[in-house]
Amino acid sequence: MAGYVSGVGGGSFGGPRVIAIANQKGGVGKTTTAINLGTALAAVGERVLVLDLDPQGNASTGLGVPPESRPRTAFDVLTGSASILESAQQTAVPGLLLVPANSDLVGIEGELANDHTRPFKLRDAVMALIGQQRAKPQDLPFSYVLIDCPPSLNVLTLNAMSAANAVIVPVQCEFFALEGISQLKDTIDQIRATLNPQLEIQGVVLTMHDARTSLSREVADNVRAFFGPKVYETIIPRNTRVAEAPSHGKPILLYDYDCAGSQAYIRLATEIIERERRFKAA
Questions:
Q1: I need a labelling partner for 12 at 20 to 30 A (CA). Which of 18, 31, 111, 216 fits?
Q2: How far apart are the first and last CA of the chain?
Q3: What average pLDDT does the segment 72-78 reach?
């Protein structure tokens, strides 16, 4: 598509790596992964921005930002009324910022209906962010932007994938896990061919895994057979403490650092950073 500008983030010049966390199925752990991966990356010294692109705003709530404390949101970024930096808020996690979301995003399709550049609104905002970071090298730049996508393949997910360098796909270890995965992969291939030639699957993370059940083991084996080495070695276990944490407005690393879920997300962050190092060295 005309108008594509390659090279968003990725960094040799200090731009952030932009990673969309996407799966059109709901309840697979996208938001949980965005929140806790962002926290784990910040904990090891990365400066991270979580961009909430889901009208439900669950990533915002899970990071302790209630609806009444979201003066500027992702809607403002996509409509051009505010920049990413103007919309970003510091969270309780040092080094982790958030562009929140609210139900205004439900109306984004209508808002951008007559705009032929609508798939690129977020990409343009990220490019502007990179320009601001270049202009102020004394400010600590973001090293990662994590985009929490809605559970659908709509204009919001399209914007996320047009802006992203890579996609992380959470897959729940349950019976219908592979339903729609082929469709998502086809969508990523189509976006790579038409809107964003650099888009890649950074990895697939198995979530809500119950090692006691043969079903979880079977699903994990099937996903590994489908995606091969794209599947991370780290598996996120089904963990009550992980499920409880968002209701307290905290990432699991702040809510219960020692639980199995926290330790899994720390391992996942380490694995993702290692893949990023290999990517940059290639």
A1: 31
A2: 27
A3: 98
Tokens of 159: 């914007």
Q: Which residues lie below 8 Å from residue 211, measured CB to CB, with a gap of 6+?
A: 217, 237
Joined together, the tokens standing for residue 281 give 């060295």
Q: What is the mean pLDDT of the chain?
A: 89
Instruction: Check: CB of residue 206 under 8 Å from CB of residue 231.
Output: yes
CA dihedral 269, 275, 279, 281 (to 10 degrees): 100
pTM for this model (two decimals): 0.92
Are 87 and 99 within 8 A, CB to CB?
A: yes
* Reported confidence tier of residue 280, pLDDT bands at 50, 70, 90: confident
Q: How many CB atoms lie within 10 A of CB 279?
A: 15
Of 169, 157, 159, 99, the residue nearest 124 (C-alpha): 159
CATH code of domain 17-281: 3.40.50.300
Residues 121, 126, 130, 133, CA torsion sign? positive
Could you tell me if 146 and 1 are in contact, meaning their C-beta atoms sit under 8 angstroms apart?
A: no
DSSP state of 66: -
* pLDDT tens for each residue of 185-224: 888 999 999 999 999 999 999 998 888 888 888 989 989 9
How far are the Cα atoms of 6, 171, 246 from residue 185, in angstroms, in the given order? Answer: 21, 13, 29
Annotate 12-38 with three-state secondary structure: CCCCCEEEEECCCCCCCCHHHHHHHHH
